[in-house]
Amino acid sequence: MRKPICLLFMLGLAIFVKAQDGKRDSLLKLLPLAKEDTARVMLLLEIADLYETNNQDSSIYFLEQSKRLSTSLKFTKGLYTYYNQSAIVSFTKGDYAIAAEQHKEALNYARQLKDSSRVIAILGNMAIVYSYLGDFQKQLEYSLQVRKASEETGDSAKLSGIYHGLANAYINLKQYRRSADFALLSLRIHTEFKKRNDYINRVYATLAQDYEGMKMTDSALFYYEKAKQESVLLNDKYAEGIIYGYLSNLYAANNQFEKMQKSAEKSLELARELQSRQMVASSLYDLAYANFLNGNNAKAKKGIYEALEIASNDSLRDELRNIYLVLSYIAARDGDFETSMMAKKKTDSLQEAVLNEQVVKSTTELEKKYESEKKDKQIKLQQAQLQRRRIFSYILIASVFVILVISFLISRNYKQKQRLQRQRISELEKEKQLASAEAVLKGEEQERTRLAKDLHDGLGGIMSGIKYSLQTMKRNLVMTAENQQAYERSMDMLDSSINEMRRVAHNLMPEVLVKYGLDTALNEFCSDVNQSGALQVSYQSIGMDKLQIDQTPAITIYRIVQELINNTMKHAAAKTAIVQVSNTNSMITVTVEDDGKGFDPDILRLAKGIGWSNIKSRLGYLGGKLDVRSEPGKGTSVHIELNI
């Protein structure tokens, strides 16, 4: 008399886990403190979920608030959850068409989230929608799709709800043994993953329906009692009300009319509390029928007319058919045969309407099948006519294809040879450039070394000898004060010349670089720049103290740093600079930064100065990488990487 327990599977796929009333109260206290963000959306949805099975008006109120905020925030997850939970509430109230539309919206958002678990849940719910639309074959097809997708994910705990859905689908097809197999399988998986399924009451109810369908009354009663107990523990009042309705029908079938009446009264009490008009109409019908069977025609008549008003206003056709049937019995007992006949005609009319719909549906499906077969025959005929043409076309295409392949292979082979030749020429040119750069750099350094030695050993020795001779002459001469002053001035100039000559010789070939290595030479160079007062340079060395490096790359790195610092002093108008040299896994990195006026790095492409050309030449010789970053007014940073 009532719809199967499919409804319960639908709710079993909801996202949130039901909690106790205390949790709901604590969440309500948090709501006034929550900001207008996505966290508030999820809080509203969780509160709505906790009201879902015991106060649907409150659930709808919080759901609408979440939709408003989710829409303004463009929060996809929030909108998905809103439509999913709203569909469940609509389904619970008996608004199946609305629930179907809401599920379609939820499915759209689930796919946007690319969340397979959500998509599976909505597909399962759509299977239930088809069951309430009377298309049980499609319900089974959707349920099997959900099962396949869920088994592929490997989440065994979720399979409890999936198997429960299959059990519901087989109930609608009246395959009770097959349904019981899946219900028991769902129950076994729930036992293994007990904390993952809070809807075990609904599985028990489905199993009870299976045994009722197989005429095994004792087993059906046992599992209905189990379903009631679990519903109370879970505070699932909707499921509890439905189960009392099932028990009422079972007691009626076994002529236990007093138990039938008590179950119907309890079902009606819960239905009114939940404000579910469809459940109220069904419960009133059950109670009226129980009162009729117990001989209380007055109460039966009052209840059946109340049920009739609700079912008529809400267009509940299945309930109307049952209500008119019982009304015909009640009116006949009262001697109101006119009303009894009218009610019987209404029952027959509604039954005929259902049969007509089934006939129309079957006819439509047959017509579609006939049209499909007709089209298939036409297609086969056309295919037969085109077959010969296709064979000829295939031969022609194959011939053209072979010619094209041969042409392509010849062309590719020719281009491959050209590419290899160009690559080889490029490599030779690069080797030539590197050899030329190496020769230039080595020649330059050799010339610098020779000049440094000549200046230091030759000119330096001569000037030192002159200074010594003048000092010796001074001891043997008597000079006036004026001559003494001129002598001292000449000696100072001679000292300055000697120092300048030594500085030039040092720059040409730093002796400390040859003796103590790159790290010490760079440190001393930065110290000399600091002493000059032209620029304050901070030198930082990482992993360089134990590095053994050949003289040629060491001199090259030294010259690059020297050129960069000289450029900073000449052009950057900087006050401070940093020179950082580090060694990591045979990779030397050099960074030179300053706080000068900066420049546009693009002008380096047009630079014609010797210094910048020297830097690029030296880096090209060592196979190094160069990165220059600068902006007007923000200083300059030069980063160099070299594999040694």
Task: Please provide a brief summary of the model.
With about 650 residues, the protein is mainly α. It has 23 helices and five strands.
Q: Are there runs of 5+ residues with pLDDT below 50, and where?
A: 4-20
The average pLDDT is 79
| Strand adjacency order, main sheet | 1-2-3-5-4
How far is it from the N-terminal to the C-terminal residue, by CA? 88 Å
Query: Counting H and I runs of at least 4 residues, what is the number of helices?
Result: 23
Order of helices and strands: HHHHHHHHHHHHHHHHHHHHHEHEEHEE
State the secondary-structure class.
mainly alpha
Bin the helical content.
Answer: over 70%
Q: How many strands in all?
A: 5
Write the layout of secondary structure elements.
Elements: H1 6-12, H2 21-30, H3 38-51, H4 56-73, H5 76-93, H6 96-113, H7 116-132, H8 136-153, H9 159-172, H10 176-192, H11 200-213, H12 217-234, H13 237-253, H14 257-274, H15 277-293, H16 297-313, H17 317-333, H18 337-476, H19 481-508, H20 511-516, H21 518-532, E1 536-542, H22 551-572, E2 576-584, E3 587-594, H23 610-622, E4 625-630, E5 636-643
Parallel strand pairs: 1-2
Antiparallel strand pairs: 2-3, 3-5, 4-5
Helix pairs in contact: 1-7, 1-9, 2-3, 3-4, 3-5, 4-5, 5-6, 6-7, 7-8, 7-9, 8-9, 9-10, 9-11, 10-11, 11-12, 11-13, 12-13, 13-14, 13-15, 14-15, 15-16, 15-17, 16-17, 17-18, 18-19, 18-23, 21-22, 22-23
